[in-house]
Each structure stands twice: as structure tokens, then as C-alpha cells.
């Protein structure tokens, strides 16, 4: 405990261990506000438990683990490592290894650390079960962590493109065009809502809207624990939720809102005159039974899988065209690789002009008529009659 400890690990549980599902304990030094401490990570079969101890308590705790809970301990310093093994007869064997030279700290071996939009050490990642106490993805959560990082990266670029943010890497209080409000509709467990708040910090107010009260309660608890004052979660559904007295919404997000819930969210954003809309649709079921495609496609679309994929394409293509008619510059792209999720199409729309162009209306009407689509949810929200092209 002289300040040279890199880490200490315990393994090989003893037959008499009081906690048979405790597999390992990892110890490393940390600096807390109250002074130097040692973090003990107790790794069980299905969970991790983290405890921080001052040096004297840490030493006694470490001594109590060897021989009672574990048969093996490894201690690492920059210049040497030591291993203690206790056999079945209770005899201890010590092995030491001296490094030929002091290892170069990891951070000094690279010109620059990889910059991530969301730090792996973010407390909310750990509290929501994405990472463990060491900032590593939990089992089965690596793809989710990549999705969170990719979303934050894309959102930062879109906010800059929309003129809402100048620099996502700037210090809090700088790089702001003006304070703005972000609303995440149908946010679920809030992974991406927390990512937005974490990246933006005090540069925007972020609101998560979720219909399931238990998830709202969980997310607000994490928000309080992490002291994210610009973030809050409210209970409500996409179509009717009220998140502020004036319902201000500069940025609307709705990822994986099922079927026409995506259209409900887009309509709320357009009605609020949002500067940026970001959606990732899923379960595009509305148009499949309504489509009456031309005869030239009948042989191909008699196969259910082709009809399903074509309905997805037509649904999202109509959404993009309706957004453009409503005055938004629209981009459609792959959000994350299909190896992580099949729901990977993202539609992003940036407000550019208020006018509703007749030429665009005629073209989207022709597109709908080609596929025999008589109506669609976003078109109804916007008062667009696809059959006649007349706005109601």
C-alpha cells in the first residue's frame, strides 16, 4: 500500500467459501474526494458489486480474502508481480517476477487516446447495466454500447448541421447557438436519451418521454444519482404527452417507435416547428395490407418477404418525401450495421423553409399511386390526401 500498486486480483474460490457464486475480486487504487481509496469489485456469476475502502480497511479486507474465500492472489506493480497460491493442505507458495524494464503507461504509447462522444466511465452506463465498474461492456451489451456511441456521434453531427450546436467537444457553456430543447419520444430505458444529455451537458434541456412508469421511475433515479440536472423523464405516450407548458421542441428523437408511432412523433415535431427530427422506424405494418402495386410487380410481390420489404421501403420513402414537402432537408442512411440490429434505417430532417411546394406534392402523390397506396399516417397528420394531392 505504498502507492505503487497497479492492481490486485483474487481467484480460485476455496471449497469453504461462504459465497459460492463469488468468482473473483479485483482491487485497484482510486482517488476520491475524501482521499486515496481502493476499489474492490466483487464479481459474481450474474452481477458485480463495487465497494470503496480507505487504505487501512482495504489492507484488512484483502488479507481476509486470501485463504478463506480464495486460494489464489496476483499483485501487480510497475516493476514486478507476485502470486500467492494456497494448496489443499493450506500451504502457501509465493512466486515473484521482476520486469526487465518499467512498462510504458498505456496512455503514453499513443499520440492520442480515442475520443468517444460518451466516456466509458459515465456512471449512467454502469447504472443502466451497459458497462461494469471498470467501464467495460457487460456480457451481451457490446453491441448496445457501440450503438450508443454511434448515435451520439451522429446526433452531434446533425446538431451542428442544423445550426443548433457549433462544437460538441467544447466546454459546457460554449459552442452554443442558443439553448435548445431535445425531446426523445418513446425513450424506453433511456440509453440514447442519457447519451444525448451526457454529450450536450448544460447546452440543452433533454426530456425523455416513455409510457411505462417503471422505466420513467428508474431513469429519473439514475438522473438524480448522476446529477444530470438538464435531463428528466416523464410518463406519457408519443401522441399526447406534454413535456412543458409551451411544448417547445427544437429537436425531436424517436428511435424504434413501432409502426405509425413514428408518424405520430414526426407530426409532433413538425407541429412544434422543430429544427431537427431524428427517427429510426421499425415494424412498418400499416401499408402492407393497403398496397396495390402495378401488375408488373405482381409476380415478384406474391412472395411475402418481398412484399414486406417493399412495404417498408414505400413507408419510409413516403415519410422522407412528406418531410421534404413540409420544408425539411431530409437524409436517409444506415444507423448501425445490420449485424447489430435489423432496425438500422435512420431518417434525419433539418428545417430549411416554411413553404409547402406543389411540385413535391405532385411527385409524392404519383409515388403513392404507383404502389396503390390510398393513405398513410404521416400524410393524414399533415392533411395530405394522397389520392387527390389536395391538402385538407
Q: Would you write up a description of this structure?
A:
This protein is an alpha/beta fold and 392 residues long. Helices cover 29% and strands 26% of the residues. The chain has 2 domains: 103 residues, no CATH class; 259 residues, Vaccinia Virus protein VP39 (Rossmann fold), CATH 3.40.50.150. The strands form 2 sheets. Strands 4-3-2-1-5-6-7 form a 7-stranded antiparallel beta sheet, covered by helices on one side. Strands 10-9-8-11-12-14-13 form a 7-stranded mixed beta sheet, with helices on both faces. Helix 4 links the parallel strand 8 and strand 9. It starts with 6 loop residues before the first strand and ends in an 11-residue tail after the last helix.
| Beginning-to-end CA distance, first to last residue | 76 Å
Indicate the percent of residues in helices: 25-40%
The name CATH uses for the topology of the largest domain is Rossmann fold
What's the Cα radius of gyration? 27 Å
Mean of the pLDDT scores?
86
CATH architecture of the largest domain: 3-Layer(aba) Sandwich
By CATH, the superfamily of the largest domain comes out as Vaccinia Virus protein VP39
Largest sheet, in brief, is: 7 strands, antiparallel
Q: H/E element string?
A: EEEEHEEEHHEHEHEEHEHHEEHH
Low-confidence stretches: 100-113, 170-177
What's the CATH class of the largest domain, please?
Alpha Beta
The side-by-side strand order for the widest beta sheet comes to 4-3-2-1-5-6-7
Total beta strand runs: 14
Shape: elongated
Structural class: alpha/beta
Amino acid at each position: 500500500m505504498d502507492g505503487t500498486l497497479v492492481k490486485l486480483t483474487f481467484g480460485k474460490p476455496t471449497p469453504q467459501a461462504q459465497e459460492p457464486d463469488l468468482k473473483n475480486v479485483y482491487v485497484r487504487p482510486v482517488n476520491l474526494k475524501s482521499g486515496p481509496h481502493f476499489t474492490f469489485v466483487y464479481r459474481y456469476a450474474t452481477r458485480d458489486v463495487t465497494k470503496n475502502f480507505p487504505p487501512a480497511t482495504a489492507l484488512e479486507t484483502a488479507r481476509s480474502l486470501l485463504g478463506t474465500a480464495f486460494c489464489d492472489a496476483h499483485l501487480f506493480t510497475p516493476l514486478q508481480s507476485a502470486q500467492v497460491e494456497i494448496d489443499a493442505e493450506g500451504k502457501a507458495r509465493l512466486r515473484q517476477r521482476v520486469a526487465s524494464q518499467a512498462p510504458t503507461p498505456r496512455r503514453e504509447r499513443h499520440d492520442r487516446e480515442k475520443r468517444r462522444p460518451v466516456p466509458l466511465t459515465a456512471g449512467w452506463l454502469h447504472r443502466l447495466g451497459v458497462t461494469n465498474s471498470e467501464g467495460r461492456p457487460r456480457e451481451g451489451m457490446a453491441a448496445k454500447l457501440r450503438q450508443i456511441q454511434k448515435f451520439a456521434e451522429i446526433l452531434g453531427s446533425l446538431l451542428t448541421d442544423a445550426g443548433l450546436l457549433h462544437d460538441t467537444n467544447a466546454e459546457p457553456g460554449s459552442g452554443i447557438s442558443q439553448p435548445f430543447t431535445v425531446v426523445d419520444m418513446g425513450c424506453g430505458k433511456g440509453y440514447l436519451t442519457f447519451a444525448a444529455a451526457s454529450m450536450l451537458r448544460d447546452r440543452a434541456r433533454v426530456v425523455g418521454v416513455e409510457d411505462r412508469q417503471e422505466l420513467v421511475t428508474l431513469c429519473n433515479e439514475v438522473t438524480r444519482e448522476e446529477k444530470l440536472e438538464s435531463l428528466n423523464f416523464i410518463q406519457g405516450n408519443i401522441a399526447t404527452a406534454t413535456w412543458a407548458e409551451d411544448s417547445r421542441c427544437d429537436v425531436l428523437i424517436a428511435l424504434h417507435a413501432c409502426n405509425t408511432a413514428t408518424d405520430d412523433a414526426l407530426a409532433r415535431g413538425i407541429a412544434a416547428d422543430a429544427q431537427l427530427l431524428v427517427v429510426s422506424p421499425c415494424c412498418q405494418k400499416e401499408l402492407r395490407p393497403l398496397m396495390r402495386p402495378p401488375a408488373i410487380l405482381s409476380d415478384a410481390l406474391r412472395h411475402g418477404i418481398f412484399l414486406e420489404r417493399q412495404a417498408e421501403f414505400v413507408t419510409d420513402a413516403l415519410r422522407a418525401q412528406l418531410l421534404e414537402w413540409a420544408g425539411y432537408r431530409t437524409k436517409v442512411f444506415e444507423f448501425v450495421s445490420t449485424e447489430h440490429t435489423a432496425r438500422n434505417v435512420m431518417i434525419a430532417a433539418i428545417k430549411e423553409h416554411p413553404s409547402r411546394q406543389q411540385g413535391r406534392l405532385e411527385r409524392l402523390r404519383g409515388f403513392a399511386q404507383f404502389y396503390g397506396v390510398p393513405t398513410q399516417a404521416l400524410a393524414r397528420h399533415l392533411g395530405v390526401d394522397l389520392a387527390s394531392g389536395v391538402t385538407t
